Amino acid sequence: WNDQEALDYYCGRLRTLARYAELIETPARMMVVTYAQMLNQTAAALTTLQNFLQTPVTFSEEYQVLKTTGIKGIGDSKGNIKAGKIVRAQRPLTREFNADLLQEAQATYDQVSATLFQRCQGLPSGGQ
Fold it and tell me: Is the pTM of this model over 0.90?
């Protein structure tokens, strides 16, 4: 994809999340957890998810790697997913984007995040 196509895809996915939140309308049926929360508040994020989903088994930072884990088209196909645990070290970014496109992406993220945190349940601290 070129930069504009990547931006359009990213912003479209974000806007879809906001539309879902608007359609569902009931905060008790929705939860939002950010990437930063999952990395930096892992225990709280996992406990909150478990409580939200009402699962009897506790969630863990480690997970079973299956033969389909990391297969493109089935889920996340990046290397870290095959680690079997949450990987906190970010992979180096190998692509640079035009500053105007990044600004547009950030604005869309900020707008959608505000909508989701307003309409959905989140971590008890409410932090992003």
Answer: no
